[in-house]
Design brief:
Length: about 300
């Protein structure tokens, strides 16, 4: 096993072609700086460039650190490429990445495995759907999401059935598959998981967005959300959130790291919303902040992740 203190050549893959390109460039730059501080050699490669595959092959890295968010990065595609190239990489494999990225498919898995998650309806562009039926099943207030976008891109809260058609149309502008979810009010909590054979659940982190929900601006603009560690919930509920995060990590087959987003209701129920296999690694990101609360500074976190990838 190679530990995180061994000097390696790490290819940091950043940028890409998704709607989260700018965030990915920022994540990649900060990860690269942390790895250099930790004593590794680094080559930064923009996966949005036409020759990025040739650049990866020419670099002959020991390991790749994928800092790509959203499509063509977090969805199993780049993971499959690296598998074909025979290059170890940080993060989950092809199947786990694809399942976690697809909100509809991951919800199906959660429902089948008994993981508590809000009731939902899965819509496809080529199939008919009925607003009244959705409202009867899920209630008047719903959350509508394109299945395969990250960072809350294309997400809308429909406060009444009358707002639902427009919300669904907005989601269909981004994807052929759409998730409509029952709105569950409560405290937004996220828990990061790191490790492979032995999993470490990081401290619970409560998100308090300035907007109605934790949208793109809340995630990436400093001052648009507050992060509270540990979350302001009972100790038993913190433990339940950590337990569920480990369970979702294992159920989807994740490795190295993940971050599970949840809602904790006033009556003490915990609902899993989604799992992120490549959480943000910027100055406002949640996983590094939770790791810091556990005594793991950012360079050490990045070093650990590289170590997990080459175990």
């Amino acid at each position: 096993m190679t530990d995180s203190t061994s000097k390696l050549l790490v290819a940091v893959l950043k940028g890409g072609r998704s709607g989260e390109r700018e965030v990915s460039l920022n994540t990649g730059a900060q990860v690269a700086a942390a790895l250099l501080e930790g004593g590794h050699d680094v080559v930064e490669i923009d996966a949005g460039d036409e020759d990025f595959i040739a650049r990866i092959e020419a670099a002959v890295p020991d390991v790749a650190f994928i800092c790509l968010h959203g499509r063509f990065g977090e969805d199993g595609t780049v993971q499959g490429l690296l598998e074909l190239l025979g290059i170890p990489y940080v993060g989950s494999g092809v199947l786990a990445s694809a399942l976690a990225m697809d909100k509809v498919m991951s919800k199906h898995v959660f429902a089948c495995m008994g993981i508590p998650t809000p009731e939902y309806a899965a819509l496809r562009r080529d199939e008919a759907w009925d607003v009244e039926e959705i409202a009867r099943t899920l209630g008047p207030k719903t959350v509508v999401k394109p299945a395969n976008e990250g960072s809350a891109i294309g997400v809308t809260i429909a406060h009444s059935p009358s707002e639902l058609p427009r919300a669904i149309d907005t989601a269909f502008e981004r994807d052929d598959s759409v998730l409509v979810e029952k709105f569950i009010g409560g405290i937004e909590v996220t828990v990061g998981i790191i490790g492979n054979r032995e999993l470490l659940a990081l401290p619970t982190l409560e998100v308090v967005p300035e907007h109605e929900f934790y949208d793109y601006e809340s995630k990436y603009v400093p001052g648009m959300s507050r992060h509270i560690v540990p979350a302001r919930i009972d100790e038993s509920l913190r433990g339940e959130c950590q337990k569920l995060s480990i369970e979702t990590h294992r159920v989807l087959g994740c490795r190295d790291m993940s971050r599970t987003d949840m809602i904790v209701t006033e009556d003490g129920r915990v609902y899993v919303l989604e799992v992120n296999t490549i959480p943000g690694m910027t100055s406002t990101s949640l996983l590094p902040e939770a790791a810091r609360a556990a005594g793991i500074e950012f360079p050490e976190l990045c070093g650990r992740l590289v170590g997990y990838a080459v175990e």
